[in-house]
Amino acid sequence: MKPRADGSPDVSPKSGTLQEDCVGTESHTVLQESVYVILGHGRLQQLALLSTILSLILLLMHAFAYRLIGRPVDHWCQPPPDFRDLPVLQWKNVAIPVLADGSFSRCTVYDPPVPDDSQEERRVVPCDRWDYDTTDIGNSVVSMWNLVCEHSWLYYISSSVYMLGSLCLVPVAGIMADRVGRRPVILASAATMLLATMAAGSTQAFGVFLMARFLVSATASATNVLNFIVLYELTGNEHRALYILLANSVGTTVTPALYAVLFLLHPSWRLSHALFVAASVIVLAWCYSLEESPVWQLATWRVRQAESTMLQAARTHGVDMAKARATIRALKRQLEKRETASGTGTGGSGRMSLAATFRRRAMSIFLSWFAVIFAYYGSRTGRMSLESYWEVSAHGFKILILIAVYYSMKNRGQRVTLSAVLALLFVCSAFQTVSYEMKWGIAMPMSTLMVLCTTSAALCVNYGYTAEVFPTPIRSIGFCVSYAIGRAGVLLVTLIEAFAGDKRIFAFNAVMTVLSLVSGVAVQWLPEVFSHRKKDTDPGTSDVQQRKEAL
């Protein structure tokens, strides 16, 4: 088993996939960069970038959908038929117990509801039906299925079921994408997401709603992850760092602003789902415009299909077709040499050592995803609301962090960048833990702002580095398993929200601090990867540069 150029081992199967072994100076890196020379850069990568951005926006819209369709609704015990004509305030004054804080009970009612002539004290009994105040905010999942009082646990179940969709089914999408191709699985996921979104908005059955949301979670996540993999495999090293950051930072910036506006407009249940359906249609249309990854086609010995894809892209980007075909012929000869040499690998002990190294690196990536996704979603769930000037400051701070991340990825490498971002997240989360416990006034919104911006940057770097760690034949399954483990972190957020009570903010901050520290240490097992490769005296690299200049 030969290591890749970036130091990670090849665990691709021996038959049916392109081996990662080297033939002289004709390394895997040279072959891959030869593909980028033929592809050129332009419309193909821009379509993939826009499709990835839109799919992430839609994924975040579904992930935070309960801000629109799961809002809390004021409720009280429903009067019996004989008292239905009684005004609400009069009904509450007569039949609803008053709590110690002076508010009306939401879960109990007097029995009988109206005092009779007897002198017996009325009993306080639990409600069996409720009325809701939907005048201003309309229906939500709470009022649609009575997820209140003794049924309130179903609200947290519905959130957990959504997260389980990604945890259970995204790895399946990854397996299929490595076997049949990225594009077919993306289209199937996007189409299923559209149908499931329509079902969630139109059903009257809570069980059907849960199943639809389960599928929406899985398909929205798979669509985004596989879109990103296609973008990564279509984009050469020269533009990759910029595209990685744009693919993730635009969505994480636009979606919160979009939800802030929608929350003020109080869209109805049907209008909210109509918005989700419209966004799903747009994403499906953009996914249809994607091309299959020629890097994956070459890695799985679909050479003719890869040649067709590369020539079509070269034609679109204005590359000289005669020279592109000549480069493809040279690329085929390199592939034949690699196939001939694929049987001369390392010995058994070497393979075992490389496999152990790969497992350690995979575990580091899994832990990083768990920590980053836990921090990203948890910091946006039930957090303190920031004043408008803090929100504006957050956007400015986020831009500064992303600029620093971009230059670090280009010049210092992705592992160093990820380590630095996780270290910053550790400092920010520790600061937030202390400031919230000590009630340090201005330090509380400041620490919240820093955590929000740092988690967005960590998410961007995590996406890019994960695609580098896993070789092409198993990139989708490796990435999808990593993402699914990250979604398990969101389940932990839900459990903290449900069971930590008044200590939930402290519990979340403390767990985030520990996870960011542990994942930052674990990342040190990973190899360094530069998004923009520096000039090198390697003959193979020189050949690639010469072919690029010729084309």
UniProtKB/TrEMBL annotation:
Top-rank taxon, per record: Eukaryota
Region of interest called Disordered, as start-end residue ranges on this chain: 1-21
Topology within the bilayer: Multi-pass membrane protein
Source organism of this protein record: Amblyomma americanum
Cellular component aspect of the GO annotation: membrane
Pfam families, alphabetized: MFS_1 (PF07690)
Cellular location(s): Membrane
Keywords from the named record: Membrane, Transmembrane, Transmembrane helix
GO molecular function, one term: transmembrane transporter activity
Protein name according to UniProt: Major facilitator superfamily (MFS) profile domain-containing protein
